[in-house]
Amino acid sequence: MFSMDLLLGAVLLGVLLGCFYAAVSVGLSVSFGLLDVPHVAHPAFLVLASYGVYQLNESYDIDPLLAGLAITPLFFLFGLVAYRIYYETFERRGSDAGVRGIAFFFGIAFIIEVLIILQFGVDQRSVSATYIGKSWRFGEFRIPIRQLVAFAVALTLTALLAVYLSKTFMGRAIRAVAQDEEALRLMGANPVRIKQFAFGIATAVLGVAGALLIIVAPVEPTLDRAYIGRTFCVVVMAGLGSISGTLIAAIILGVAESIVLTMFGASWAPAISFAMLLAVLAVRPQGLLGR
Amino acid sequence: MKKTRHSIAFWAGVAVFLIAVLAMTQTVRNEYPFFAGYVILQFIALAVAWSILGGYAGYVNFGTNAFFGVGVYTAVALFKATGAPLVAQIAAAAVVGMALGFGVGLLTLRMRGIFFSIATIALAIIIETVVMNWRFVGGAAGIQLQRPPVMAPFDSYVKMLFFVQAVLAVTAVAIARYIQNSKIGRGLQALRDDELAAECTGVPTLKLKLVACMISGGLISAAGAPAAMYLQYADPSSAFNLSYSVSALAMALIGGTAHWIGPVLGAILLGSTQQLLAVTISSEVNVLVLGIMLVLFVVGAPKGIIGLLRPRYRLRAGGKP
Q1: Mean of the pLDDT values across residues A243-269?
Q2: Inter-chain contact B126–A114, Cβ cutoff 8 Å?
Q3: pLDDT digits (tens, 9 = 90+) for A25-69
Q4: I want to staple B250 with a disulfide (CB 3.0 to 4.6 A). Which of A30, A181, B127, B294 is the partner?
């Protein structure tokens, strides 16, 4: 039953999986971690992006990664609009924003889920591309090429976002607004516009992340529920808003899931991210690299 | 004086309602009204129980389905192990629900509201996974249940369940009403408006939140306990269905959470609409309507139906006792 090879294989696959989790979580790391928006609809947006990619791939035979890039501008605009609505109705009015803001995003997530069911049905959907379905022999392990593609793209995406936030002017402005909104206002900048732009970026990233989601495995309309646990677990474990922390936390989650999957079977898999989330909240709520 | 008069009116209303329900079970032959009515009463209990924490204290519980499912499976496990009567099943479910509320509250109620919300989603998934792997209660495939013979004044089990759920709904309302008018309710409202200020003026915020979370959880689990006997069947994916969470939250927020009547109105209105829609159109559209109504109300009418009907509650919610 237990063997070193099996464990090694599980860890290897877990690292690949973890980088993929980082890619689907970095958007939340910006919107929830930096901007403090209770964005429980993030995984629903992610699944929506996957269905967008599926549609493009199905009707025009576009490569899923290109399709993901193609819907990115659309998602950027979508993010701008979503934040504007959220800001105008909740943040600006202040009081009671907590309850209603959370309920708002929860409602949006549910609406997206049902609309996808009405449009595409409840069946699983997948994309076709040359690199899907093949695998690569690596010593004794077989690694599906789709996992490797997702790994490479996810790592690039996360790294690009980290560089963007630390090196560019706008990226630094976003981190500044997270640190002290009032100071930014006193410097003559408009914090709301910066936050709106940041939320747009966080949502745009989901275009590519959604492509990865459907490359790694088929998607179904209610998949967002499992990803609520994974994305929030990663972002909270990382320490809110830390991009490097996001990568580390995502790899920890990926490895943990992969090991449990190998040792105990698939029926326990959905609970792992949620259990880790609860454990982190109980033991170290500020996360690994908390600010 | 005025308060006692209100109390007399309330308890008279309760008595009239329960007598009417009992009379209905004795006179109406057709079972369908009881089937449909049970669901609406269950939603009243869930929405009112949800608003004890979500409305008064402002902590959004996404895990109504966790507490509900725990209620269902406590009843199932107890029934299968000992054949205990319905009342014992409900009591056990309430106790387990309270313990669960205490546990999750202790873990997360110290933190900002969003962490509690996410933790409650987590709770639902974890418990559902555990139940799926628990052979004794049927695992993922579910379990068939044989209803015991019905008791004296009732001639069918569904009618009895209808009456029992009416009692549970009334209990939830009475407890919510008591909390709203008591020191606990005022403390909860204070901490909802400004937790730091409440803490500084000596409101024992964590203790109050824990009490609210326990009561809310216990009531939700109790309302879920008869569901197994109602369906004569239980399986994890329907007992822990997320739609219970959305319904409870939406009904409470749409009705308005400043007063206990809000969730009751919301549950009656949405519950009966749902019953109609479920018969006439598909269940997906049904859920879609619920989601859209929730978003519209949260954006456009923050105080819910009671806020629209009586602007006075806007003032009350603003802080005046």
Answers
A1: 87
A2: no
A3: 999 999 988 888 888 899 999 999 999 999 999 899 889 999 999
A4: B294
The predicted structure's pLDDT at residue B321: 35
ipTM of predicted complex:
0.82
Q: Determine, for residues B123 and A278 on separate chains, whether the beta-carbon distance falls below 8 Å.
A: yes
Half-sphere exposure of A86 (CA within 13 A, CB side): 29
Judged by phi (left if over 0) then psi (alpha if -120 to 50, else beta), residue A37 lies in beta
Q: Where are the alpha helices (DSSP H) in B194-281?
A: 195-200, 205-224, 227-231, 236-239, 242-255, 261-280
Instruction: Please report, rounded to a whole number, the percentage of residues in chain A having pLDDT higher than 90.
Output: 36
Across the interface, whether the CB atoms of B114 and A271 are under 8 A apart is answered no
**A132/A122 Cα distance (integer angstroms):** 22
Q: Is the dihedral of CA A164, A166, A168, A169 positive or negative?
A: positive
CB distance from A107 to chain B under 8 Å?
yes
Q: Which residues of B touch A (CB under 8 A)?
A: 54, 58-60, 62, 107-108, 111-115, 117-119, 121-123, 125-126, 129-130, 132-133, 140, 192-193, 242, 246, 249-250, 253, 284-285, 287-288, 290-292, 294-295, 298-299, 302
Q: Compute φ and ψ for B133, nearest 5 degrees.
A: -95, 10
Half-sphere exposure of B76 (CA within 13 A, CB side): 28
pLDDT in tens, A124-164: 888 888 777 777 777 667 788 888 888 999 999 999 999 99
Closest residue by Cα to residue B220 from B120, B148, B130: B120
The amino acid present at B38, given as its one-letter code, is: Y
